[in-house]
Write a structure and sequence with these properties.
With about 425 residues, the protein is of the alpha+beta class. The protein is built from 9 helices and 26 strands. The chain has helices at about 1-15, 35-50, 75-80, 100-110, 145-155, 175-180, 195-210, 220-225, 255-265; strands at about 25, 30, 55-60, 65, 70-75, 90, 95-100, 120-125, 130-135, 140, 160, 165-170, 180-190, 215, 220, 235-240, 245-250, 270-275, 300-305, 310-315, 320-325, 335-345, 350, 365-375, 375-390, 395. The strands form 10 sheets. The chain has a 4-stranded antiparallel beta sheet with strand order 13-21-20-14. Helix 7 (about 195-210) crosses helix 9 (about 255-265).
C-alpha cells in the first residue's frame, strides 16, 4: 500500500511540475507554468483563435455557417509539455472538427435534396384530353464528397465548401406516359336534337360519365356512375321501351348513352361483364350492338383488363353523343360486326281509325362479333346472340286515306 501511495505521489508531482523556462508551444510562452496551467493557457489561446474562424458550406438552396463551439478541436498539448526537458520552441498538433458532423451533414442533405418529378399526364374533360408534364430530374448532395470536403477545409485554412450533387435521373420517359394515355377506341351515335326531353337526358347521362377513371383491374358500373334517373336529378320524361311498346318514362334516351359507351368499350379492348339487349331493335345502332339499362336490375358493366388506368371522355353536340376511352393499348385493333340470321315478320292488323295506324317493323335474330386484329392475325369472336321482337303493323284500309297517322317513334330509350 505504501508503494502504491508513493507511485501516485510521484505521478502527481510530475504532472504538477513547472514547465522549464523559455519553453514556447505553438508560439505561446508557457515556461514556468505547471503543466495543467500551460495546457489551459494553450487551449484558451486556440479557442480564441477559433472564435475568429468560420466554416461556410454553400448549397443550391442555402448557405450554412458554423463557428465555435459548433467547431471544436483536439490537441496533444499535455503530451508535448510532459516530454519537455529544456527551453525551446515546440509544436503541438491541433485538429479541428465539426461537432455532430454526421448528423449535420444528413440535415443539410435533406434540406438540399431535390426530389425528382416523373413525367405525368393530367386528364381533362374538355379541349385536349391530356396535358403532359415532362417532369424534372432530382439531385442529392454527394454525402461522401461533402464529408471529405468539410474535413479537408478544417485541416486547411477553413476554405468554403461548395456542395457537389448527384443527379437523380427520371425513371420514366414522357413517351411512356403518352403510351399509357393513348386513344384506345371511340364510338358515336346520333339522335334527334329537336326531341328536347330525350336530348336533355342524353346530355345529362353522358356528362356524368365524362372524366371518369377506371383503375387497372377495376370494373365500371353504368348505373352506379350515372345514378338513378329521377326528375329531381334533372332527368325528363321521354319515350322508353316497356313490354315491347314505346311509352313515356323518366330517363328516356339514357339507353342510347349506355349503348354508345358499350360500343366504345368493346372497341377499346375492355372486358364487358354485363349487358342487356332491348326487347325491340333500335334505330341508332346495328342489331347486337345495343346495351339497355333500367333501374338497378339491368346494368352495363365492363372491366379494365390493363394494369393502367382507363380514362373516359364523352362529348355531346347537336344530335350526337361520342365516347372516347384512353389508356395503354394491348397492341390489338378491334372492330365490330353484326350478322342477321333470321327475320321475324311482323303481324298486320287492319284498323278503321287512321289515327291508330302504326308502321311497325319486323323482328330479327342477330349475332354480334368482336374482330381482333393483332399484327395482321385476325380472330373473330362471337360475343352475343339476340332476338328482337317484331312490332305489329296497324294498317288503315287502302281505299281510305289516313289524315293524321301516329307512327312509331324512330328511336328507343
Amino acid at each position: 500500500m505504501s508503494a502504491v501511495t508513493a507511485g501516485f505521489i510521484f505521478c502527481l508531482c510530475g504532472f504538477l511540475r513547472a514547465v522549464p523556462k523559455g519553453v514556447t508551444v505553438n508560439g505561446e510562452n508557457v515556461g514556468g507554468l505547471t503543466v495543467p496551467s500551460a495546457v489551459e493557457k494553450l487551449r484558451q489561446k486556440t479557442a480564441e483563435e477559433l472564435k475568429g474562424k468560420s466554416l461556410c458550406i454553400y448549397g443550391a438552396k442555402a448557405r450554412y455557417v458554423f463557428t465555435y463551439p459548433e467547431i471544436s478541436f483536439k490537441d496533444d498539448f499535455k503530451n508535448v509539455l510532459g516530454s519537455v526537458k529544456r527551453g525551446g520552441e515546440y509544436s503541438a498538433n491541433v485538429s479541428y472538427y465539426l461537432c455532430g458532423m454526421d448528423e449535420i451533414i444528413n440535415d443539410i442533405c435533406r434540406e438540399e435534396k431535390v426530389e425528382r418529378v416523373e413525367p405525368y399526364a393530367k386528364f381533362r374533360t374538355s379541349g385536349e384530353p391530356f396535358y403532359y408534364f415532362e417532369g424534372a430530374d432530382g439531385k442529392q448532395p454527394d454525402i461522401a464528397r461533402l464529408k471529405a470536403d468539410i474535413q479537408a477545409a478544417l485541416k486547411g485554412g477553413f476554405e468554403s465548401v461548395k456542395i457537389k450533387y448527384l443527379t437523380a435521373f427520371r425513371r420514366t420517359s414522357l413517351d411512356s406516359v403518352r403510351q399509357k394515355t393513348a386513344l384506345l377506341g371511340k364510338f358515336t351515335t346520333y339522335f334527334d336534337a329537336s326531341n328536347t326531353n330525350r336530348a336533355c337526358n342524353i346530355r345529362l347521362a353522358a356528362a356524368l360519365l365524362n372524366g371518369v377513371k377506371v383503375e387497372g383491374g377495376k370494373t365500371l358500373s353504368f348505373n352506379d356512375t350515372v345514378g338513378a334517373r329521377l326528375p329531381e336529378r334533372g332527368f325528363r320524361s321521354a319515350k322508353i321501351i316497356e313490354n315491347g311498346e314505346y311509352v313515356e318514362g323518366v330517363g328516356g334516351g339514357v339507353c342510347q348513352v349506355s349503348t354508345t359507351l358499350y360500343n366504345a368499350a368493346l372497341l377499346s379492348g375492355m372486358a364487358v361483364t354485363e349487358y342487356h339487349p332491348h326487347s325491340l331493335s333500335v334505330g341508332y345502332v346495328a342489331p347486337s350492338r345495343d346495351a339497355m339499362v333500367s333501374g338497378s336490375s339491368c346494368d352495363l358493366k365492363f372491366k379494365n383488363p390493363s394494369a393502367c388506368p382507363v380514362y373516359i371522355r364523352s362529348r355531346t353536340g347537336n344530335g350526337y353523343v361520342t365516347f372516347e376511352l384512353y389508356g395503354k393499348s394491348d397492341g390489338a385493333k378491334y372492330s365490330l360486326e353484326t350478322v342477321v340470321r333470321q327475320t321475324i315478320p311482323a303481324e298486320e292488323e287492319l284498323c278503321a281509325d287512321p289515327s291508330q295506324v302504326r308502321e311497325g317493323k319486323d323482328g330479327l335474330i342477330s349475332e354480334g362479333y368482336l374482330v381482333v386484329n393483332r399484327s395482321g392475325f385476325i380472330k373473330k369472336i362471337k360475343i352475343r346472340t339476340d332476338r328482337y321482337a317484331p312490332q305489329k303493323r296497324v294498317i288503315f284500309p287502302a281505299d281510305l286515306s289516313p289524315q293524321d297517322g301516329a307512327g312509331e317513334p324512330s328511336e328507343s330509350a
